[in-house]
Inverse folding.
């Protein structure tokens, strides 16, 4: 490359670097807002400036004036003049407006995060929070800064973020679990306590499964609203697709809506969703069917029949699994039978999901193949143990023969010695 | 009395010789029987805990298909991706341990029990499975497909 070419390439690189947002931000004049607010010695004024250093917006090159207006290059009080666009500390709808100025602008947001949605403000005004703010100017409802914080905003994927999946429940609970705050809205405050007993919270907090749902996965985040009775199934069905589809086609779907009962939540609860068990089915003490059905009605009989089928498959599977395990631990080769038994396990899981069709025929279709596979595997396990018994018995016999042989040799040697004498 | 005693000694000696002869035969049988069983291949395949050679030729596995095979006592799935690459994963779903299958209409792995989806790198991409499927190493040696568990 000649010198002319090199200088042209260097010029191009300089041009690209000088147009990048981070370079532009770095080239801005000194931020007097931070300078003054940290130097005045008033902790109340210094706090926002200190926290903002950790904010995603600061990292992207935005300063205080991006939200508050004013002139950061002016070191005097005139920097905070309305003539210079200074708006002070925004409140209520003004906060939503300030955030929305950038976050609702698709072409602007594309420069920083092309995948980020830009309908948060529209969603917010469809939420219970947003509607109350707009319609009655309620100052207590959640606004952008209530959840995202004001000067330490981080993306939800950052574990330090206030809206990280592990923190969302406590964040919502900071208002919704407070009886004093919720008193005027007349809504319960036990959701957080109940949610923390649920299988979803256990998966999220103990097993670290961040895909397990927290408040916003069912209620929406910016458009937070309680799910309607007719669409609870759609919400749960985001993850529990098979169960939701079966339920939707079942006779219960229509009846539940007619009775004003929320689909999935009628049996599984809404916030306190425990890990399911077979005891929930049938007519036993822990069964949920008994809440509406009795042993005499058709539904009760179906529930009992389905429970019997599930129990029998579970028992047969456990029996086969345990005998194969015993045979394996005894040193017998049963891997083929164990491999085939996996199909019975699949049948059991499918049968448990099939309960949501509330049809004995549908459950039987899954249970029957599982029972056949389990029976076959059990027989093979039994044969393996019989073979083991056979080997052990004949080991004893051969040991007895060997010992007798040793004894006989000893007697023979003694006899020969005596003969020689 | 002495005659009886002599007769008794002769009988016992004959019995002892007979017994030694037959037990020596039994002894030899117990030695050679296991050797013969060792030389004759067993009816059951050997346990494959870390590596398995499949009863399939690479050419038999068509593009955009998958099939279940036995890896020890557990099911595994061999997939020929639409791009022609051979990949293998455990076929045990990470949700509730159902056996997964390949869906050629979706071009990825699917669990029928609760509609779990896994991409062709084994990553859980949709539905309730909490973790990816464990991926195995696939080697093609001539006409053989050898699948091994990673180190």
């Amino acid at each position: 490359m000649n010198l002319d070419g090199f200088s042209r390439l260097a010029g191009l690189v300089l041009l690209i670097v000088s147009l990048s947002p981070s370079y532009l931000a770095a080239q801005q004049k000194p931020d007097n807002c931070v300078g003054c607010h940290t130097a005045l010695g008033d902790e109340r004024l210094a706090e926002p400036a200190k926290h903002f250093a950790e904010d995603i917006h600061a990292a992207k090159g935005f300063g205080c004036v991006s939200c508050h207006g004013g002139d950061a290059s002016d070191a005097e009080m005139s920097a905070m003049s309305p003539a210079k666009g200074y708006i002070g500390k925004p409140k209520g709808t003004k906060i939503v407006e300030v955030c929305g100025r950038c976050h609702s602008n698709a072409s602007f947001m594309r420069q920083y995060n092309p995948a980020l949605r830009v309908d948060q403000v529209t969603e917010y005004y469809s939420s219970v929070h947003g509607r109350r703010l707009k319609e009655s100017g309620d100052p207590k409802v959640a606004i952008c800064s209530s959840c995202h914080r004001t000067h330490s905003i981080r993306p939800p994927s950052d574990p330090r973020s206030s809206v990280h999946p592990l923190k969302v429940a406590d964040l919502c609970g900071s208002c919704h679990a407070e009886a004093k705050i919720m008193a005027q809205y007349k809504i319960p405050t036990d959701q957080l306590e109940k949610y923390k007993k649920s299988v979803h919270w256990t998966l999220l907090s103990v097993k670290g499964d961040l895909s397990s749902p927290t408040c916003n996965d069912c209620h929406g985040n910016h458009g937070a609203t309680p799910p309607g009775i007719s669409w609870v199934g759609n919400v749960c069905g985001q993850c529990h697709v098979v169960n939701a589809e079966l339920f939707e086609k079942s006779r219960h779907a229509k009846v539940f809506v007619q009775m004003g009962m929320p689909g999935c939540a009628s049996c599984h609860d809404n916030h306190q969703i425990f890990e399911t068990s077979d005891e929930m089915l049938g007519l036993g003490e822990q069964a949920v069917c008994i809440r509406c059905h009795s042993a005499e009605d058709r539904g009760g009989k179906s529930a009992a029949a389905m429970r019997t089928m599930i129990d029998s498959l579970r028992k047969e599977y456990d029996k086969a699994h345990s005998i194969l395990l015993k045979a394996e631990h005894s040193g017998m080769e049963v891997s083929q039978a164990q491999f085939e038994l996996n199909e019975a396990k699949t049948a059991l899981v499918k049968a448990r999901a099939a309960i949501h069709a509330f049809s004995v025929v549908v459950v039987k279709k899954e249970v029957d193949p599982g029972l056949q596979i389990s029976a076959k595997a059990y027989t093979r396990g039994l044969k393996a143990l019989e073979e083991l018994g056979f080997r052990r018995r004949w080991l004893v016999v051969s040991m007895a023969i060997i010992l007798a042989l040793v004894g006989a040799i000893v007697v023979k040697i003694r006899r020969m010695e005596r003969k020689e004498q | 009395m002495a005659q009886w005693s002599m007769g008794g000694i002769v009988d016992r000696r004959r019995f002892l010789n007979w017994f030694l002869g037959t037990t020596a035969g039994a002894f030899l049988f117990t030695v050679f029987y296991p050797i013969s069983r060792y030389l004759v291949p067993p009816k059951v395949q050997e346990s494959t805990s870390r590596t398995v050679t499949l009863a399939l030729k690479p050419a038999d596995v068509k593009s955009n298909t998958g099939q279940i095979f036995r890896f020890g006592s557990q099911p595994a799935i061999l997939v020929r991706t639409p791009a022609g690459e051979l990949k293998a994963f455990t076929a045990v779903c990470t949700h509730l341990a159902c056996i997964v299958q390949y869906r050629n209409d979706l071009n990825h792995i699917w669990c029928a029990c609760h509609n779990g989806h896994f991409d062709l790198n084994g990553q859980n991409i949709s539905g309730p499975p909490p973790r990816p499927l464990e991926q195995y190493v696939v080697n093609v040696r001539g006409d053989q497909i050898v699948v091994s568990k990673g180190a």
In short: Chain B is about 25% helix and 30% strand. Residues 72 and 97 of chain B are 16 Å apart (CA to CA). Chain B has a mean pLDDT of 86.
